[in-house]
Specification:
Layout (H helix, E strand, L loop, with lengths): L8 E7 L2 E2 L10 E5 L4 E5 L4 E9 L2 E9 L8 H13 E7 L2 E6 L4 E7 L2
Antiparallel strand pairs: 1-2, 1-3, 1-9, 3-4, 4-5, 5-6, 7-8, 8-9
Length: 116
């Protein structure tokens, strides 16, 4: 099944219900899901990451994600929390241009918004 917003850049706006500060475009945490290859890619704000994703109905999970290790004194918490949220994701919900990522227990772990 194809994700309805595959190949769209989603900007991270909240983690665990807490708003993420707006950053310059080059450092804005984001996620892109490749519709053809089942690949996920993006940035945590400092380092780029890549990996796989699986989609079945409303279930969405991310395979192993590999990220760079560049130091990021001001954004390390956001980056670590974003990668953890992706690892915890078990389902998704679309609400307009917003993509809500949910853990297996139903907890909202991240909110992203469609770019462009």
């Amino acid at each position: 099944m194809t994700f309805p917003f595959a190949d769209v850049r989603f900007r991270l706006v909240a983690l665990d219900g807490v708003n993420v500060p707006e950053l310059p475009e080059s450092r804005q945490p984001h996620l892109v899901l490749d519709a053809k290859g089942g690949r996920a890619a993006g940035s945590g704000g400092c380092n780029r990451f890549t990996g796989t994703y699986e989609l079945e109905g409303e279930r969405l999970s991310f395979g192993p994600l590999s990220a760079g290790r560049k130091t990021c004194p001001n954004g390390r918490y956001v980056e670590s929390a974003f990668l953890k949220a992706l690892e915890e994701t078990a389902r998704y919900r679309l609400e307009g241009d917003a993509l809500a990522l949910l853990a297996a227990d139903g907890r909202l772990v991240a909110t992203l918004t469609r770019k462009g």
